Amino acid sequence: MKFSNRLVILAVAVTALIGAGCAKKNVAAQAPPPPTSPSAPAERPQPAPQQARANAPTSTPTTAATQTPRMPNAETRARIDTLLSRIEDAYFDYDKHTLRPDAIKALEADSTELRDILKDYPAYKLTVEGHCDERGSAEYNMALGQERADAAKAYLVQVGIPSGQLATVSYGKEKPACDEHDETCWQKNRRVHIVADSQR
After folding, report:
1. What is the pLDDT of residue 64?
2. C-alpha to C-alpha distance for 144 and 133, rounded to whole angstroms
3. Binning pLDDT at 50, 70 and 90, where does residue 198 land?
4. Does residue 6 form part of some domain?
5. Which domain holds residue 114?
6. Into how many domains does the chain fold?
7. DSSP tag of 96
8. CA 29, CA 23: separation in Å to the nearest integer?
9. Distance between first and last Cα of the chain
10. CATH number at residue 78
């Protein structure tokens, strides 16, 4: 009898131990997953726009610094003035606005270098002045002077100077280079002259 009691007690103990082990396994299996909050901030994309905004001031000055200035500095303006002083006035025959070979040669001198400078400064402009001798009416000479200025501008545009950087004006016979009343003087007055724009 005692032996059977022991067997019953042993069976109950074994059952209890097995049940306890299963209970632990169930508890472990049913436990919620560990919290993911520590890694969540690293996965959030919100900081990226703030970083972009923080970096924006750095990138904006870099872009502005690399843009070509629209107006030349003092040294470049002095170089342009030197080129303009070397380009001789282009002269015309009486009552004509067609460029003569010597007029083309005068406009050609240094105009290539002038073109290369001006293309880098789109806001810098030149004015082509048209002039006439004293013969003829004021109205006629104003129109003739304009035709001469336009002919010189067309040549300079052909060389490669942007049209938008070349203004034209006619002074007719109002601003003579010579005041004598002979052909030698009149020839000096039938001309085009190029100057830097006074609005620079």
Report:
1. 45
2. 10
3. low
4. no
5. 74-196
6. 1
7. -
8. 10
9. 125
10. 3.30.1330.60
